[in-house]
Design a protein that fits this description.
Helices cover 24% and strands 27% of the residues. The chain is built from 7 helices and 18 strands. The chain has helices spanning 189-198, 216-219, 226-244, 261-272, 289-300, 318-335, 356-371; strands at 6-9, 15-16, 19-27, 36-39, 53-54, 56-59, 62-70, 74-80, 99-102, 108-112, 130-139, 144-152, 166-169, 206-210, 254-259, 279-283, 308-314, 344-349. The protein has an 8-stranded mixed beta sheet, with helices on both faces. Strands 1, 2, 3, 6, 7 and 10 form a 6-stranded mixed beta sheet that branches. It has a 4-stranded antiparallel beta sheet with strand order 5-4-8-9, with no helix packed on it. Helix 5 packs parallel to helix 6 (318-335).
Length: 374
């Protein structure tokens, strides 16, 4: 981000002991509707748009709000027009990282917004293959809307009688294009799957990438909203996809795949909905979340669902923190009779980090395990 695009103006200080008053001034393009400030502090909604701060309009292009924070507090924040599909962009139309401040002496932050996410068209030029975009897909279970991307295999339009297995993907923003990814990186799944099909290494598949909602962590956590999200996939998304597209709807032809928190919800779907999903891919799964709830559930389970799964993890930083819970999960699954190589794939990648780039390099092993042509 250029210095002209995001900079600080220091005015007279308003410091009251252990608190600091900070005013946010935001310059926006013409004809902008309500503008919201959302962030990591409870006064900014704790990243929940239901509690985000609505800015006051000074004029058609300037909005403002004032918030009092504790001093020496690190604050992360962003600006949106009410949800993550309408967040402010960088000058180059990329999604910015969280803006950060340490509450010290500054009292006014001036921010210039050039464009919004929903004003930007989907970068179809980045897509390999045939992509169909469905916007504003409603989830009655979660009472929110999101985008769903459907990637169709090479023969889909030329072979109207053929049906295809389906791979459902979480964090749909990240799997096909970097433009909408929060990290600015992607899984490159369209390129990878196209190459594997061309090399006759996997069968042709349909991929359904479901964007996450604004409260991603809760949505992918079975202890929080994960059961509602699972019901959304099972009861809303899958029947709709099976009706709209030529799928093979049976469990034997239905897989789910995700990373980090998406790895948890993928395993949950395989474990609890093995009548729907026969395959669950878990890249860098955050099994330790919620005091390793999902690991304990597997350990104490009285039944053994019939499904294949993959667990893949790196060794660096956050990946190393995930490893102990992954080790326990593998131990309990092995005790229950799951066999490495036939029932599951387990890989540790030395030197790999917790990033979309790493998952892009690793995901082909999951694809071969699930859809490989022998």
């Amino acid at each position: 981000m250029s210095k002209a695009f995001f900079y600080w103006l220091i005015f007279s200080s308003y410091s009251f002991g252990q608190i600091q008053q900070i005013t946010f001034l935001v310059s926006v393009p013409d004809s902008t509707d309500d503008v919201y400030l959302i962030g990591s502090h409870k006064k900014l909604g704790n990243w929940n748009h239901s509690n985000a701060v609505k800015l006051k309009s000074v004029n058609d292009t300037l909005f403002t709000t004032t918030v009092i924070f504790p001093t020496n507090k690190n604050i992360e924040f962003k600006f949106t027009r009410g949800d993550w599909e309408k967040e402010a962009l960088n000058e180059n139309l990329s999604i910015p990282p969280n803006h950060t401040i340490k509450v010290e002496n500054q009292d006014t932050i001036y921010y210039v917004i050039s464009s919004w996410k929903d004003w930007r068209s989907f970068p179809m030029e980045q897509i390999t293959g045939n992509m169909i975009i469905h916007k504003n897909v409603y989830s009655p279970q979660l009472d929110n809307k999101r985008t769903v991307l459907v990637w169709l295999p090479p023969s889909y339009n030329n072979n109207p009688s053929k049906r295809y297995p389906v791979l459902y993907l979480h964090d749909g923003q990240n799997v096909f294009t970097s433009d909408f990814s929060l990290s600015g990186k992607e899984w490159r799944l369209d390129e990878t799957v196209t190459a594997l099909i061309a090399d006759q290494k996997i069968e042709e598949i349909i991929m359904v990438a479901v964007y996450h909602g604004e409260n991603r962590t809760a949505e992918y956590s079975p202890k929080h909203n994960g059961n509602d999200y699972a019901d959304f996939l099972v009861s809303t998304i899958k029947p709709w996809i099976d009706k709209q597209y030529r799928t093979k709807p049976t469990r034997e032809n239905t897989a789910v795949l995700g990373s980090s928190m998406g790895g948890i919800i993928s395993f949950h779907l395989g474990w609890e909905y093995s009548n729907v999903f026969s395959m669950a891919g878990c890249l860098s799964p955050a099994f330790l979340v919620d005091r390793s709830e999902i690991v304990k559930r597997v350990k104490n389970s009285k039944y053994i669902p019939d499904f294949k799964f993959t667990i893949q993890n790196g060794t660096e930083e956050l990946e190393a923190q995930f490893q102990p819970s992954i080790n326990k999960m593998i131990k309990y699954l092995t005790k229950k009779g799951y066999n490495k190589g036939s029932d599951y794939l387990y890989r540790i990648y030395d030197g790999a980090y917790h990033t979309e780039s790493a998952w892009a390099d690793q995901v082909n092993e999951t694809l071969l395990f699930f859809f490989g042509l022998n």
